[in-house]
Structures are given as C-alpha cells and as structure tokens.
Write a structure and sequence with these properties.
By secondary structure, the protein is α+β, with helices and mostly antiparallel strands. The protein contains 3 helices and 8 strands. A hairpin with an 8-residue loop joins strand 1 and strand 2.
C-alpha cells in the first residue's frame, strides 16, 4: 500500500491544525427581570428553584450558549450569574455574578470547568443534557433554547 504525500496534503494538515477555537468577546446583559424568567426542572431532590432569563439567551458564533442563571433558595436567597456553556467540550464558565443593585461583578475564577452530572447541584448538567446541548450539540438559536425551556426539555432528548 502506497502512502500518498504531496504539498496539498501538507497544506491540508497545517490548515486543519491552525484553526483553534477562539471565544468571542462577551457583553454583559441587562439584569434579569422577574417577568422574563423561565423555570427549568433539575431533579426531584432539588430544593432550590432554577430559572434562565429568556432575554439573556444567546448562541455565539463560537458555539457557546450564554445565559443568565437565577437560583432561588427556600430561605429566600437569590443567586444570579451570567454563564456560558460549550456543548462541544461539555464545559461551563461564569463570566459575572449579579449584585443586589442589578450591576455585575466580574467573576474572579472564570475558567472553563467540566460539567458533571451529580445528584446534588446538577443544574448545569440539567441545562447541558436536557435543554441547551441535546445529544452533545449546541442549540442553533436563542429561540430553540427558549422553546426547550418552555417545553420542559429539548425535543431531541430521549426521555
């Protein structure tokens, strides 16, 4: 069996390897409003309530699904964060945390972190598996993500 070698193949390999993933510049959204919050199901044991601000949803040209996450605790606590999810690598990151006055505080640790599916604190896994990344592929648009949240899950996810 002969191995083909040509300048065209060398150019192909070089071009393929040089196209590294690049994240787009992120703009912080407006603070979440109660009338734009869409609830999503996490698990039967979750005591907190979880929401995504519908108006904050975006799907970047870099393949990252971005959204504002709001978590309400039974004791009345409220956590707000602006986050991104890379379906291709099953990772997430927090860009900023919401303050009580509606402003944003840039995250000190905004590294990409692997999304684990665990019993407790599985809200990122729920968003990844059931809403934003069906079969590991990012939704194509904010409308598709909103529709999945409104339906209680993406239609491509087998239940």
């Amino acid at each position: 069996m002969a191995i083909l070698s040509s300048p065209l193949l060398a150019d192909f390999d070089e071009d393929y390897e040089s196209k590294r993933w690049q994240e787009v510049e992120v703009q912080l959204p407006a603070p979440p409003r109660q009338d734009r919050l869409l609830p999503f199901y996490v698990s039967a044991v979750a005591e907190n309530r979880f929401y995504v601000d519908a108006s904050s949803l975006s799907v970047g040209s870099d393949g990252v699904v971005r959204y504002v996450l709001v978590i309400l605790t039974p004791q009345g606590g409220r956590n707000v964060s602006y986050e991104g999810m890379r379906c291709e690598t099953r990772e997430r990151r927090i860009y900023a945390s919401g303050r009580a006055d509606g402003s944003w505080s840039k995250s000190r640790n905004n590294d990409w972190v692997r999304i684990a599916d665990q019993l407790v604190n599985r809200h990122h896994a729920a968003l990844y598996l059931e809403y934003f990344c069906p079969i590991g592929i990012a939704v194509r648009s904010p409308e598709e993500a909103r529709d999945a949240l409104l339906r209680g899950g993406h239609p491509d996810v087998r239940r």
